[in-house]
Amino acid sequence: MCFVMGTPIFDGLKQQASFYLKEKIRFARLVLTDVTPVQLLVEEVTSGNPWSPDAKTMGLISRSAFDCDEYIRIIHILHRRLSSFEWENWREAYNSLVLLEHLLTRGPESIAIEFQGENSIIEEMLALQYIDEKGFNWGLAVKNKAERVLKLLKGGTFLKEERERARRLAQGIKGFGSLNRYLTSTDNEPNIFRRCNSQYEKYTEEEREYPNQRDEEEIKLVSSNLLAER
Hints:
Keywords: Cytoplasmic vesicle, Golgi apparatus. By secondary structure, this protein is mostly helical.
């Protein structure tokens, strides 16, 4: 049987083969290295995807950031993405800014301190000029996101107000039902993520958002789905 290049069947087979290869590489990294599902997820959502990280995925990552080991992995990836910023790979930087903004308002407070050294790099992004074939001004979108992140990184009243606003929003969503799940401390429920006491003690019981076992399963599922879409 012969498949002609450029046909829907050929393109479909090519996409399936690509996904299969990526899944094999992902599985090998999980088994053979110390990489974690959260780390893979952060790498995928801050890549050059034409779509930005969604709220659910960022929520899983921000909750994971309260674990010491995952925190280090997450900020390392973001530092690497931002420090390697190039105009032709602007989507990586933009997706990283989207995730960084979420972490600044919903993750550990130390995130703001961690990324103050990236101010000059983020300021470079303000000059991006790009309008796509549909007429959307991505340069302006990147500029607006960069300006907001820079303002959050300054800390002070603005950061506190935005964190409080995010906290109230999360509580409101939680009050409506099942969109947010929080880990409650019981002797019978396994805590698969170690707690970092130095950061943990700063938060009230309602603000502690350590991922539970279902979160870990969702991280793996979301990561696989993202790979399938690429």
